[in-house]
Amino acid sequence: MDTKVFIDGEAGTTGLQILDRLSGRDDIELLHLGDDRRKDADARAEMLNYADVSVLCLPENASREAVAMLENPQARVIDASIAYRTAADWVYGFPEYRLGQRDEIAAARLVSNPGCYACASVSMLHPLVAAGLLPAEFPATINAVSGYTGGGKSLIAAFEDPSAENYTDSAFYLYALGMAHKHVPEIQQRGSITNPPVFVPSVGGFAQGMIVSLPLQLWALPKSPKPADLYAALADHYAGQRFVSVAPLSDPEVIAHLDPEALNNTNDLKLYVFGNEDTEQAVVCAVLDNLGKGASGQAVQNLNLMLGVDEAIGL
Question: Measured in whole angstroms, how far is the alpha carbon of residue 155 from the centre of its chain?
Fold first, then answer.
């Protein structure tokens, strides 16, 4: 029997991407509400309790409202909002996070999909803390640039629609300069650090793609690790993974530049370590598609695990 899947918020950026990745699957029956019923609370509640798995592609408060509608104890949920990413009773939907995470996701009723910036940040921080190369109290600074699709329909219009009220012709800008970006609590908790990082996000004038960077003063770390030590810890942590990989440690001159769009339309996340032993400095970088491993791709990967099928189907 086909698994019934309902995407609550399928008309949004993430919902449309998930819908596209699931279309044509013969093991899934996609459930839909017509345009006239998508905001009907009774219709949504009926669908949420009828579906085997619902994927919530909604703003935070709307996700909480949707979860409150659940009465069927067998109904399972993947939430793509920020609402439950640090909640103890939800399983964190980053399969490569640690040993056993896949099994937890596969058995879970409630799964919280990571944020795009957070997925990248956590992919760097957590293994380095776990390996003892970064102390838990490490004062992390994270710099990031994302394509404008990460901001949803409003930001897409700002870059693509000259008639939009918020239209901009800017090629690049920083934002969230009040040190209170919504992904910070998730980065802190899931990154295994005890203090909030200084997180400096930015938007580039390209649709999708992302680079997140973690600069490190190696001389200031307790064990004074070498760049090769960082690489070894990350490579060991992600050995054998299908969607997260670590680029070979090489002379920085071999890679002239990193392209934030390099992994677009994939569910891949690739880590790089660049270092200078003379200055005892390094930077760890993560490249991913903010709409792929940073959102819809990750959600489909989690859905596959929950359904007990090959996690790469549709990816």
Answer: 18
